[in-house]
Amino acid sequence: MQPLILVSVFLIATCGLIYELIAGTVSSYLLGDSVMQFSTIIGVYLSAMGVGSYLARYIGRGVLQRFVQVQILVGILGGCSASVLFLVFAHGTGFSLVLYCLVFAIGTLVGLEIPLVMRLLKDELEFKEIVSQVLALDYIGALAASLAFPLLLVPHLGLVRTAFLFGLVNVGVALAFLMRFPPTRQASQLLLAQAVLAFLLLAAGLALSERLTTLAEVQMFPDQVLLARSTPYQRLVVTQRSGDLRLYLNNNLQFSSLDEYRYHEALVHPGLSGLENPHKILILGGGDGLALREVLRYPTVTEITLVDLDPGMTELFSRHPLLSKLNEGSLRSPRVKVINADAFVWLRDNPGSYDFVLVDFPDPSTFALGKLYTISFYAELKRHLAPGGAAAVQCTSPLFARRSYWCILKTMEASGLRVRPYHVFVPSFGEWGFALIGPSRPGEHLPAGLRFLNQAALAALFEFPLDMSSLPVEVNRLSNQALVRYYEEEWRAVAQ
Predict the structure, then answer these.
(1) For the residues 416-425, what does the mean pLDDT come to?
(2) Domain CATH number, residue 343
(3) Which of 146, 365, 392, 476 is deepest in the core (most CB within 10 A)?
(4) pTM for this predicted structure
């Protein structure tokens, strides 16, 4: 019995942490602010484990049966957790309530496991051996889960399959105990039937996980879901309707193919067209290759380095026929070198200067993204600008997130950069803001083939009405992340 129990400790510890990570990741994907989501979920989960550990004292006889029942319940709740959360979010109401009730229920059951395991071992080991071996295996299982989740499970299985798989592991532990101690009484036979039914339910969920995910995403997105995949960094969904391709990252719209040219022409050409004979370009973010497409319109450009965190993004937009057609095969250009790395770390660790730098990051909705808008980041950016070089940065909406926009501009100026604000109207997003850095004279050398920008439209980009004019704001630093606070408050108000 001892080896079976100790192996089970490792497995159930792994399962318990996987469910916690799934809840945190799903809520981060759907609600944003990963720091807040993981912090609250970890807090609720750990407190629930404490409740479960306390409740174990009220279990008297039948410890083995109770342990089996707990495994079945944890397997069902944890295994179905990801699909339930996606479906509830798609329905539109009650997501947070379901999320925290589910986390609390799973945490309570997981908290019951270790006290019950220790009681099962009390006749086979001394107390000090029970404590040391059980806790050691529990911590090792947690380590295994924390490494496997981002490196193997999410990239290769996705969240829904991962949840069902580990639900099967929990129920498998229950079945192993029932097989090791064959049922002889009616109650035990009932437990075996429950375990088998739970196993079949989870196996069916695993087999149908792609359909369940698609069902949820069909309800979440107004158009047909063309493809969806999870990477270690984000959830990518591409939808299609009547020739309109749309990319969503973690449920947030990134572009519509009907009007993305407005955004990307405004991002690239006001700065790059003001440089005479630019040769060496750096693009930070922009893994969809759309800004890169615009840069490649300049024949003098001979070397472009694109640094994007997510290889899943750059691979998708390099190989998918519809998406690579949209970016005109830019990611496969011989002039382009794609590097998958954290842009902040890459800037810090790599020397070199560039005639023009494009910064096209997602909005600063989390602290992980907020660091890419800090004075520290812009100081690194300044270090990589060649003499006479320029840069352009996307800076969120100056209309819907006015304080956020001017916080970014003020932060750039505090790092010693010379900044010119400008904006453009993109029908999919509304008014969108950018910043032009350096001595560039916009419009000096506009390339042919543009669909939106000409000299008149270019001049209008730099005019701001009163409702988008400058406000007093804090500088965004790594130590305060004021921008993330502004951003969250402003976009929450828009959503309401």
Answers:
(1) 95
(2) 3.40.50.150
(3) 476
(4) 0.76
